[in-house]
Specification:
Blueprint: E1 8-12, H1 17-28, E2 32-37, H2 40-52, E3 57-61, H3 69-79, E4 86-89, H4 104-132, E5 137-141, H5 154-174, E6 180-186, H6 201-209, H7 222-229, E7 240-243
Parallel strand pairs: 1-2, 1-4, 2-3, 4-5, 5-6, 6-7
Helix pairs in contact: 1-2, 3-4, 4-5
Length: about 250
């Protein structure tokens, strides 16, 4: 505990699911946390919980679908003295549907949230760190579906594969500045967004195909995200850590 003292972490998608869990976790380990998401009321609740435990948090309304949203967010962070030293790109979206039925809106939203926004936020953070000489850390939340595909989520799979590859490319370019860029690729993690699906016939069928017929919990990712954000992991750069209970081998 406390190995992130003096660090400021920006977590997108912080109003629920993995992003919300990571915000609480990093705060407990000493980081000041900037919580960014659309649902400000949920961020307010998360901020109160963090502060009740002695942590420091600020909230930022953030629509990850917006083309100019990353720039506006970063400007606000700098104005508040909350420029991040850690970036967790946890915001993500999926618009399920057969590949021949996906719409242009499905494509644009999924690419915007899952790929364009993480790319731009990483770019803004890296430019800031290069200017200030700070050695920052970026973690992109990818997916086991970056490597293996599932039915009905072709656009999602595409964006996560691109995000994992972008991670390696950015790590290669920015390593000379002491900037680390890594990816965390979870398997099926139960969150409030997907919990209803697992009660459907399709969800139960998918669950029964998994090696241990179980879902992960956000806490199952704790050791991986703490490892990737730990300053002691300075030689870990360009990695993509899969945490999926061998689920990807069942797809």
């Amino acid at each position: 505990m406390g190995h992130l003292n003096g660090k400021t972490a920006l977590i997108t998608g912080a109003s629920s699911g993995i992003g919300a869990h990571f915000a609480q976790l990093l705060a407990r380990h000493g980081a000041r946390v900037a919580l960014a998401a659309r649902r400000v009321e949920r961020l307010t609740e998360a901020k109160a919980q963090i502060e009740a435990q002695g942590g420091t948090a600020r909230i930022y309304g953030f629509d990850a679908t917006g083309r100019d949203a990353p720039d506006a967010l970063f400007d606000s962070l700098q104005a508040d003295g909350f420029a991040p030293s850690i970036l967790i790109n946890a915001a993500g979206v999926s618009r399920p549907g057969r590949a021949e039925r996906n719409t242009m809106d499905d494509f644009d939203e999924t690419v915007g949230v899952n790929l364009r926004t993480p790319w731009r936020l990483a770019q803004l953070c890296a430019a800031h760190w290069i200017k200030t000489g700070e050695e920052g850390s970026i973690v992109n939340v990818s997916s086991m579906l970056a490597r293996r595909v599932g039915p009905g989520v072709s656009i999602y799979c595409m964006t996560k594969a691109a995000l994992s590859h972008l991670t390696a490319a950015q790590a290669r370019e920015w390593a000379q500045y002491g900037i680390r860029v890594n990816a965390l690729s979870p398997g099926y993690i139960e969150t409030e967004i997907n919990e209803g699906f697992w009660e459907t016939p399709a969800g139960r069928q998918e669950l029964n195909r998994l090696p241990r017929k179980r879902l992960g919990k956000p806490r199952d990712l704790d050791s991986a995200i703490l490892f990737l954000t730990d300053p002691a992991s300075g030689f870990v750069n360009g990695a993509d850590i899969v945490v999926d209970d061998a689920q990807s081998w069942a797809i």
